[in-house]
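Weekly modeling sync, notes
Attendees: AB, CL, MP (scribe)

Item 1: holo prediction request
CL wants a bound-state model with uridine-diphosphate-N-acetylglucosamine before deciding which constructs to order. AB pointed out that an apo prediction alone won't tell us much about the pocket. Agreed to run with the ligand included and paste results into these notes for async review.

Input as submitted:
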Amino acid sequence: MSKTILVTGGLGYIGSHTVVELQAAGYDVVVIDNLNNSSQEVKTRIEEISGQSFELTVADVNDNAALEELFAKYNFEGVIHFAAHKAVGESVDYPVMYYQNNVSGLISLLGVMEKHAVSNLIFSSSCTVYGETKNPPVTEQTPIQKAESPYGTSKILCEEIITDYAKHKDFKSILLRYFNPVGAHPSSKIGELPLGVPNNLVPYITQTAAGIREQLTVFGDDYNTEDGTCIRDYIHVLDLAKAHVKALSYCDKMAERVDVFNVGTGNGNTVLEVIRAFETVNNLKLNYKIGPRRGGDIEKIFAETTKVNDVLGWTAQYDIKDMMQHAWAWQQGLGE
Ligand code: NAD
Ligand code: UD1
């Protein structure tokens, strides 16, 4: 009998790719998503890719009755918790909304998991917990910094709550600290759908190339890096999705109650390298200029990936050119 996994936020950017990979790995999937940052159309797209259907409950993870109904109906093998708000800038303007959605959402989920004795949780954390780092790469032992934003605080609080809860209950959890997820499914059927003007680099690049934005501004070229622009560890969203499947099977057999993994490629790219990869692989010129630094930006961060490679048996397959090719193909398909 196949195992059933609850995926919260499963119609979102990372969740949708993960549902595809879970179905490919033979899991039955149930999704709860309140469509706060996604649409029901994504369900159809996922099903087109996988050739398999799944149940969707349109509800908030803070809606206890909705969760209860799902946990009463299914004997979940585990839960992957993506549902959260994720915009750093927005979190500064609306901190309570971020605590409510991200922290209360987790607590609500844990309450129902406890009641129904569901004991495996994969949690979406972020490299943002490392803050400003002195000497990348960062390992899982690199100390967590006080967060710069309510979003970052919400991720640190969630990590702490999960770790504390697992000390007292028969519970196992894997915290995945994502680096910078970019790109889209190679079929171009699912990808990132930023609302309004994107804050993140890659959607800004693709929207500029598509003529939706006039010009990309590179935020600073006076950093202490090869070409003066910031370095990040960009990871293809489909590689990231596959890491969740590996984490689920490891969760069952791990000795620790809670374990944490960096999920990145281990390679850092500067902003100008990303732009060049985009131009080369898609054979076009991007309209960009160098502007001032963006407040709060970290100069350089990328992952040490030995642990995720060795323990989960996961390695990123796609490189920066694949990421840029798939991101552009997805952008071109939007609006069709
Ligand atoms: P996303 O916004 O595309 O997906 C989140 C999904 O959750 C959306 O479909 C949204 O409608 C849903 N959702 C939000 N709040 C909900 C709630 N209370 N109840 C039910 N559904 C809810 O975001 P994403 O990029 O796929 O991110 C997924 C997770 O990964 C988030 O926890 C995010 O913080 C984390 N993360 C993302 C990034 C990134 O760069 N995208 C980096 C690090 C960590
Ligand atoms: C941001 C968040 C981080 C989150 C991540 C993924 C902050 C401080 N951090 O990280 O918590 O996990 O997004 O959602 O907001 N850039 C430009 N021009 C642009 C946009 C970006 O030059 O128009 C540069 C940035 O300065 C940075 C790099 O591109 O050097 C990547 O930026 P971005 O995609 O916003 O991700 P992060 O800043 O790494």
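Recorded for review: The first strand starts at residue 4 and ends at 8.
Action items: CL to compare against the apo run; MP to circulate these notes.
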